[in-house]
Specification:
about 240 residues, 2 helices, about 15% helix, about 45% strand, elongated
Length: about 240
């Protein structure tokens, strides 16, 4: 996915922040599934074991992918080439704001302090960071579409698409968190893994979460299949109601 010299931006979800801060960095090593990146911000706060998102450009589209931080080191631990970071950051700074279409800021480079090195691995597939690309089907006409999160949080499903869905819940979930999910509809359960992509707190204190399927249809086939079947069933029901009216 990433090669040495690839430009990336890391976002560390913070439930107390209303905007997304994109922290620029450079891939320095591909370790066969894991990656090392040198970050431009020498004061970056990151901890091993935490979850985050990596943003990057792929075929002229800004993408995001969930990751898990495995190690946080200082530049003094390794001799890592960092040339070109400043110039690259200036080139991508404006692009990331316009592509993301959100309130995002990009940290600037400070060459006076040792850089931070981060080791990470991806925990899900890359998706567009600009919007959910697939057509969404609202589930409001069907009251029996629910989701069970991590076998303990039951909540209504608000809409579905071929690759994701949104839910309404009183429980707190973190952006980037990978959860086990079971979509329940018409006495059928579709199980799999999903990644929390977005969060929004509503006026009544509840949260609207956008999730997308982790992995691919081979590794997460039941959930992918379920989202398609639920969407198709509801669309047919909508058509029948329109014809009846």
């Amino acid at each position: 996915m990433f090669t040495e010299g690839s430009r990336i931006f890391l976002h560390f979800p913070n439930e107390n922040s209303t905007s997304k801060t994109l922290n620029p960095g450079l891939i320095t090593e591909d370790q066969g599934g894991g990656y090392m990146a040198v970050m431009d911000d020498s004061n970056l706060r990151a901890t091993a074991g935490s979850e985050a998102f990596v943003y990057f450009e792929q075929k002229r589209e800004f993408m995001q992918q969930p990751i898990r931080i495995d190690a946080v080191l200082t530049q003094s631990d390794f001799d890592v080439p960092i040339g070109g970071c400043c110039e690259d950051a200036a080139q991508h700074d404006g692009d990331s704001d316009s592509s993301l279409q959100l309130d995002a800021s990009v940290e600037t480079v400070d060459d006076t302090e040792p850089r931070i090195l981060i080791g990470f691995q991806t925990t899900g597939e890359p998706v567009s960071a600009e919007s959910r690309q697939c057509y969404r089907t609202l589930t409001s006409i069907s009251s029996n579409v629910n989701a069970m999160i991590d076998s303990k949080i039951k909540c209504p499903v608000l809409d579905v698409s071929a690759t994701g869905f949104s839910i309404l819940s009183e429980n707190k979930l973190r952006e980037g968190q990978v959860v086990r999910v079971s979509i329940q509809h018409d006495r059928n359960d579709y199980d799999g893994s999903a990644v929390v992509q977005s969060t929004k707190q509503l006026d009544d204190g509840r949260f609207r979460y956008g999730l997308y399927c982790a992995g691919d249809e081979k590794t997460n086939g039941s959930l992918f299949k379920g989202l398609r079947e639920v969407g198709t069933t509801i669309q047919r029901e909508q058509i029948r109601r329109m014809k009846g009216a």
